[in-house]
Amino acid sequence: MTKNHRLVAIMFTDIVGYTTAMNKDEEQAFKYLEQNRILHKSMIQEFDGQWLKEMGDGALAKLGTALDAVNCSIEIQEIARGKLDAKLRIGIHLGDITIENDDVYGEGVNVASRLESIADPGGIYI
Prior knowledge:
alpha+beta; six-stranded mixed beta sheet; 4 helices
């Protein structure tokens, strides 16, 4: 079991109203999800970040700097406004994380998750 501690910028994202969309039109909700995944992965890669995992309609990524995380989030929001028929919430936190067996833990992850959950639809909380 390998543990690794790092200071990184954590970015959590979520599709606003995804559960309602899934109940209303499952096929369309899956399209949102796939478009969202493609958008996130390409932007995270562009900003030298790492896609960590997907949790339902949410995504978790780490980026090397707070500036990269903010700029990546801004790009994601701008593109999402034009391409997705849904809004996103994004939370960013610069903090320590623990990487263990290809998963991440720690205050940095928890704070980013909390910020995402209270962000305005279409917004970014840092």
